Amino acid sequence: MRFLYITLFLLPMCTLVSRAQRMRNYFDADSYNHTLNFEGYKAVFRLQSPDKSPQGIEMDVKYAWFSGNRINWTRGGYSGKLLDGPYSEFYENKALKTQGHFDMGLKSGEWKSWSEKGMPDSVVNYSNGKLSGRFERYDASGGLSVKGKYRKGLINGKLERRVSADSVLVTRYRNGKISQEKPSKVKAWVKKIFRKDKKRTDGTKGKERPKN
Fold first, then answer.
1. CA 96, 101, 102, 103: dihedral to nearest 10 degrees?
2. Is 62 helix (H, G, I), strand (E, B) or coil?
3. Residue 199: its pLDDT value, please?
4. Taking the alpha carbons of 151, 154, 158, 159 in that order, is the dihedral positive or negative?
5. Please, which contacts does 151-155 make with residues 24 or more away whose CB atoms are closer than 8 Å?
6. H or E stretch including 82?
């Protein structure tokens, strides 16, 4: 009889423990992994956990968020669960298509992409959802075709384009616009010195008198 009472007493407790275990598993970080199938590829990603939220919303960047069984992109806002963590895309042949990382809905760090045959396609870097840092683009055979740098979403500095096997076209940019590079003050000063020296040697100016 005593055994029956103990069993009846412990049964509700076991049920509560079981429910608590299921709830813990439900809110485990792994349960926020999702997979979406698209035409020709699939995406594997992770969503924000309930205890995380963005510090503030930036109006000039796009946020990636999940709702209605789809990934949505909105500039300056969102309405659903933000993508947060590693992100990968795979071709139907299971080859890697895209790999990167989201930080509360914003692309962050290095993002890489490949062709279906496994050849590199591009490498770009992001900071708070904006292109920032070096980037590289490759041709169909996997050869480097373009490389340069972004700064706050705009091409900045030297951009190199390979136009043939032994020829590279170099263009300089400043804040997304082609820059007409002007000589620095140091270069101008050096040229001025050389012009003075030339005038002295050819006798047109500053000619020294012969000594008696």
1. 170
2. strand
3. 55
4. positive
5. 151/175
6. strand 81-91
In a domain, 100, yes or no: yes
SS3 readout for 88-133: EEEECCCCEEEEEEEECCEEEEEEEEECCCCCEEEEEEEECCEECE
Q: Which of 54, 87, 116 is a domain's end point?
A: 116
Sequence-distant (≥ 6) Cβ neighbours of residue 32 within 8 angstroms: 46, 47, 48, 49, 81
* Per-residue pLDDT tens over the stretch 58-111: 999 999 999 999 999 999 999 999 999 999 999 999 999 999 999 999 999 999
Count: domains in the chain: 2
Let me know if 122 is exposed, middle or buried by CB neighbors in 10 A (0-12, 13-18, 19+): middle
pLDDT tens for 167-185 read: 999 999 999 999 876 544 5
**Contact (CB, 8 A) for 66 and 72:** yes
Of 116, 144, 162, the position where a domain reaches its end is: 116
Question: Mind listing the pLDDT tens digit for each residue in 11-39?
Answer: 444 444 444 444 333 334 445 789 999 99
Q: Which amino acid is at 168?
A: V
Bridge partners for 137 per DSSP: 122, 146
